[in-house]
Design goal:
alpha/beta; disordered C terminus; 10 helices; five-stranded parallel sheet
Length: 222
């Protein structure tokens, strides 16, 4: 298992130090994919960005349920990010909190340890790592909850994987009553990335454009 520090070093070497013509060469990246994904479904995984738009919802869910690689860590967040999230939950320990795309439930575990008790985890596959953290199976693009049902909604390192990014963000905004906290990796686009990312956010405006809809200006003809 690779921790975040090791994978960040690998990413930095590949994305920042190699010339793009080498970095995004299929034959150069193939051995790395073979190692990272344990020699399974390499062609399908390498071509994911080219074909994901053809996936049905069922095919998408099935792909992520069976995807296995070397970096099966409990969270993609660093310590400072988790501390930032907890600091911004507010003083009310009974506020309702949903972590959508929660993975193993690691962040929810830290939130519960901070004293918050009204918490819920939702992920495309329910695989809790803790007995006291319940995780429901659910698709971020089709959340089965009423509007504004959660006071605070958290979504960490998930939007880069979704099929329909505007729809996923729309669902997060719909179920959040007071606050929405989102974390995505700052990453430039490459066709062959070991993380299976489908969407890239090299700068914050890429995400803010989807999160914030500016008011439409009225035009009066004379």
């Amino acid at each position: 298992m690779f921790n975040r520090r090791v994978t960040n070093i690998i990413r930095f070497i590949l994305d920042e130090l190699l010339p793009p013509i080498i970095r995004d060469n299929k034959y150069f990246m193939y051995p790395l994919f073979w190692i990272w994904f344990k020699g399974k479904n390499i062609k399908e995984t390498m071509e994911l960005k080219s074909v994901f738009h053809q996936f049905s919802e069922e095919e998408y869910v099935d792909y992520y349920k069976h995807a296995k690689h070397l970096s099966n860590r409990l969270t993609d967040l660093n310590k400072s990010s988790i501390q930032f999230i907890i600091r911004n939950l507010g003083e009310d320990k009974n506020t309702s909190i949903a972590d959508i795309g929660c993975g193993s439930g690691y962040v929810l575990k830290r939130i519960k340890e901070a004293g918050y008790c009204n918490i819920r985890g939702i992920d495309i596959r329910s695989r809790p790592a803790y007995d006291d953290i319940e995780i429901e199976a659910g698709n971020i693009e089709h959340l089965q909850y009423p509007d504004q049902v959660f006071d605070i909604v958290i979504c960490n390192h998930t939007l880069e994987h979704v099929l329909d990014l505007p729809k996923a963000i729309g669902e997060l905004k719909r179920v959040a009553a007071k606050k929405l906290i989102i974390t995505v990796p700052k990453q430039r686009y490459y066709r062959y990335t070991l993380d299976n990312h489908l969407h890239f956010f090299p700068q914050v405006s890429y995400l803010l454009k989807l999160l914030v809809t500016p008011p439409r200006k009225s035009c009066t003809k004379t």
